[in-house]
Amino acid sequence: AAFFVTGRLTYGYLCAKEPKALIWILYSGFLIASSYIHYYAMTAAVIINVMVGVMVLCGKNKTKIKYFIASSLFVIATCLPSLIHLLTFVSHSNMVTWIPPITIKALISTFAYPFGIKLDKQPVFAILAFLILLIVALWGAYRGKRTGKDNTFFQITAIAAFFVPVLIGVIYSVLVQPAFISRYILPMMGLF
Predict the structure, then answer these.
(1) Burial class of residue 43 (count of CB atoms within 10 Å of its CB; 0-12, 13-18, 19+)
(2) Where does residue 38 fall: left (phi above 0), alpha (psi -120 to 50 degrees), or beta otherwise?
(3) How many Å apart are CA 137 and CA 159, to the nearest integer?
(4) Rounded Cα distance, 142 and 148, in Å
């Protein structure tokens, strides 16, 4: 799953830079594949596509805009069955009782999970590893913006696509019912 997430971010960046049909086809393929693998990856795919759309529309290149619209419509049409399945599952998930309510400890565990956390143990090094990774990503985005480099798209999109699905899961779990599980962020680890 992380492979497809990394691919869609990489090709999303290339799509925003070059109006080549093959790049847009590969980007669409990575969007579709990651969306079918996991619904958190689908949420991140939407975020990445919105960010690519913003870059393309701000550039005002008519060829890129045409490719973006065609790609988006194709991906939406292709992923519609998966989206319908997801919405059906969410609407009937009140019968799911094995998912615990979200807590601060669970949220910390979520971000430490990919770096070595297992079950209820919370090693400091796993939390520290995540914080260092986040600081490096934010620093890269800051430096890129400050120096005028055009690659800040990568950092900003990766950070947004990683955190927004988590935020959506937490908000849904708090407002509606528990649906957030730590290991579900693993498909998005390709963003870092």
Answers:
(1) buried
(2) beta
(3) 8
(4) 10
Give counts: helices (H), strands (E), the chain: 7, 0
pTM of the prediction?
0.75
The Cα-based distances of 2 to 21, 37, 42, 141, 188 in angstroms read: 24, 10, 12, 21, 6
Which DSSP category does 115 fall into?
G
Nearest to 129 by CA among 119, 120, 117: 117
The label of the residue with tokens 């991140």 reads: 44
Q: What average pLDDT values come out for the chain (192 residues) when binned by 10 residues?
A: 81 84 91 82 84 86 90 90 78 68 80 64 71 81 74 76 82 82 71 66
Contact 4, 186 (CB under 8 A): no
Query: Locate tokens 């988006």: which residue?
Result: 72
- pLDDT value of residue 119: 47
